[in-house]
Amino acid sequence: MKITIYQKPTCSTCREAIKLLQASGQPFTSVNYYEQPFSKALLKGLLKKAGLSAKDILRTKDDIYKTLGLAKKQVSEDELIDLMLTHLDLIQRPLVENGARAMLARPAERIKELL
After folding, report:
1. Which helix (H) or strand (E) is 50 found in, with range?
2. What is the CATH number of the domain that holds 73?
3. Most buried one in 7, 15, 86, 95, CB count within 10 A?
4. What's the whole-model pTM score?
5. Which residues participate in catalysis according to the annotation?
6. Dihedral-angle region of residue 25 (phi above 0 means left; psi in -120 to 50 means alpha; beta otherwise)
7. CB 84 within 8 A of CB 33
8. pLDDT tens, residue by residue, 66-86
9. In the chain, how many domains are there?
10. Residue 70 and residue 74: Cα distance in Å, rounded?
11. Residue 9: which of 84, 93, 78, 106 has the closest Cα?
């Protein structure tokens, strides 16, 4: 199985996770999802593999979360995913996939569970 890490290069947790992957010697692919955005099917698939909901990977401390007033709104899973695809900063990172498994690697050391 090949590991894929969906990340943002300026994110310190993403950089740490990539260092752990490099140190493991495992082959992996790094995807900057700001340059190669998620499709809705891919994001939903990653969430399903990880056993997570969109709320589980929502960045509640980001300015866009506050601007959109998401703390005060009832938003369906599908609507939240659509918002995440429109506003990528709403997505916690990095998301890591290895075959049939995926996870939110926060803290970065969690990535070891997929190795």
Report:
1. helix 40-50
2. 3.40.30.10
3. 95
4. 0.94
5. 11
6. left
7. no
8. 999 999 999 999 999 999 999
9. 1
10. 8
11. 93
